[in-house]
């Protein structure tokens, strides 16, 4: 299984490199987050051993369980799905980065968890770029207000923005949405709170990560492609 995972990783890294060079970037600017929500702890461990140390989960409970099962391995865990406030503390405790901060109340809960754990929680602000009502995330019009509030959260560091492309699924509309996230990044890159540095754009999944890289992604969240043919 590890050989197949290595081959899949290799081919994804090659595609990342090609998409990067196509847009005048280097692959070193882009980090692959392997999304392990489809597989068990053993396969997750195999993926880590195949060379993927940044792993993402969309459900807090699963993330906790896997991080406990794989304890001692230098895995950097990423929370990429909706997070309920009663699940914040354990998640902050075991995560490197929470991609999916989608409300001010959640941010407050993360700040309190950071205080209790004596740690700075690194987060991304999720933006609902497609404007679909079923989607989590702030609307574009709310970004300025929420970024201004971050200053008062002493145990939070905002490292960037995250989005998911809309459900329409065609690459053209995905590209427009990724470009919209990039624009928000540029708009708020300077002149923000001292604990805001929008260096990361988390965007792009198996079906659209190359498009996302062409539009400026620094973190791509790839799941299904990694496990193809296992
Ligand atoms: C499942 C998931 C992914 C990975 O999706 P694939 O299409 O399988 O690559 C990325 N981001 C989020 C938020 C997810 O829930």
Rg (C-alpha, Å): 17 Å
Largest sheet: 8 strands, parallel
Distance between the termini: 7 Å
CATH superfamily: Alanine racemase
Content of β-strand: 15-25%
Average per-residue pLDDT, rounded, comes to 96
Structural class: alpha/beta
Assembly type of the chains comes to: single chain
Inertia-based shape: globular
Q: In which order are the strands of the major sheet placed?
A: 7-6-5-4-3-2-1-8
> What fold name stands as the CATH topology?
TIM Barrel
Helix content: 40-55%
Reading the helices and strands in chain order gives: HEHEHEHEHEHEHEHE
List all distinct small molecules, including ions and cofactors, that are bound in this structure.
pyridoxal-5'-phosphate
CATH class: Alpha Beta
Uncertain residue ranges? none
Tally of distinct domains: 1
Give the tally of β-strands: 8
* DSSP summary: helix tally: 8
- What's the CATH architecture? Alpha-Beta Barrel
Protein traits:
eight-stranded parallel beta sheet, TIM Barrel, 18% strand, 230 residues, alpha/beta, globular, binds pyridoxal-5'-phosphate
């Amino acid at each position: 299984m590890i050989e197949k995972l290595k081959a899949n990783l290799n081919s994804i890294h090659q595609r990342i490199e090609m998409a990067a060079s196509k847009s005048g970037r280097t692959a070193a600017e882009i980090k692959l987050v392997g999304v392990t929500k489809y597989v068990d702890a053993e396969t997750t461990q195999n993926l880590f051993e195949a060379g993927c140390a940044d792993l993402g989960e969309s459900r807090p409970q699963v993330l906790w369980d896997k991080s406990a099962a794989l304890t001692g391995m230098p895995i950097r865990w990423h929370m990429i799905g909706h997070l309920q406030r009663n699940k914040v503390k354990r998640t902050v405790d075991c995560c490197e980065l929470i991609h999916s901060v989608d409300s001010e109340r959640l941010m407050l809960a993360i700040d309190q968890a950071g205080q209790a754990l004596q740690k700075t929680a690194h987060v991304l602000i999720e933006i609902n770029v497609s404007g679909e009502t079923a989607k989590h995330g702030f609307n574009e019009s709310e970004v300025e207000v929420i970024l201004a509030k971050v200053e008062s959260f002493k145990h939070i560091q905002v490292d960037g923005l995250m989005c998911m492309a809309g459900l329409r699924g065609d690459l053209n509309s995905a590209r427009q949405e990724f470009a919209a996230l990039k624009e928000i990044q540029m708009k708020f890159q300077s002149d923000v709170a001292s604990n805001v540095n929008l260096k990361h754009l988390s965007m792009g999944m198996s079906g659209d990560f190359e498009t996302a890289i062409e539009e400026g992604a620094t973190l791509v969240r790839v799941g299904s492609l990694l496990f193809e043919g296992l």
